[in-house]
Amino acid sequence: MHIDVKVSVWKRIELPESATKEEIIKVLEFGELGIDDLFETYADLDYNEVENSEETLTPEDNGGQETIELYCSNEKGDGPIWTNKPANEFIAAFTVPLEGTREVESTYVLFGAEAVNSYDEGGVDGLSQDIEDNEVCAYELIEFSANTSVSEILCAGDGWEKYAIITKDEFDQLN
């Protein structure tokens, strides 16, 4: 059994004495790979962790995604058996009453990291195209009725890295 923890840490890159600040700024501002451009421009750069700079991230710091994962061998394959991803937001999405009524409508969910990323970038049309082009391989669409139990909701989301709540029209278009 083990726990993986996501952290933020500062790193220091020692630059060559021959480099000018203008050259460094140019590489950082105009390079396409960000900091990786420095490593392509200058050979043998030292890259070390700055002492006492490590900070544990919260799910809020990490875009609502987990930052602590508990793994137990021989359970759930390769995935974590518990994470600190806020479940309340996930469950709350299924229990919001229709405006002006006390009824809860069905909730439509897209599961799968590649599919959700594609949906976030290009909407339902972009996702449809990516599916057609075989750019997205693992995803699942589920309609949860108003009387779906919390355990069914949690079970459906188990093992999927990301999810997105979509509209009925989007669900119908993808289904």
Note the topology.
Elements: E1 2-5, E2 7-8, E3 11-14, H1 21-30, H2 36-41, E4 46-49, E5 55-56, E6 68-71, E7 82-83, H3 87-92, E8 107-111, H4 113-132, E9 140-144, H5 150-157, E10 163-166, H6 168-174
Describe this structure in words.
- With 175 residues, the protein is α+β, with helices and mostly antiparallel strands.
- The protein folds into two domains: 2-56, no CATH class; 86-174, no CATH class.
- The protein contains six helices and ten strands.
- The protein has helices spanning 21-30, 36-41, 87-92, 113-132, 150-157, 168-174, and strands spanning 2-5, 7-8, 11-14, 46-49, 55-56, 68-71, 82-83, 107-111, 140-144, 163-166.
- It has a three-stranded antiparallel β-sheet, with no helix packed on it. Strands 9-8-10 form a three-stranded antiparallel β-sheet. A two-stranded antiparallel sheet has the order 2-5.
- It is extended and about 65 Å long.
Proportion in β-strands: 15-25%
Overall pLDDT: 83
Number of domains: 2
Write down the secondary-structure element order: EEEHHEEEEHEHEHEH
Distinct helical segment count: 6
* Major beta sheet summary: 3 strands, antiparallel
Shape, per Cα inertia axes: extended
Helicity level: 25-40%
Distance between the termini: 39 Å
Pairing-aware structural class of the strands and helices? alpha+beta
Uncertain runs with pLDDT below 50, 5 residues or more?
A: none
As laid out across the biggest beta sheet, the strand order is 1-6-7
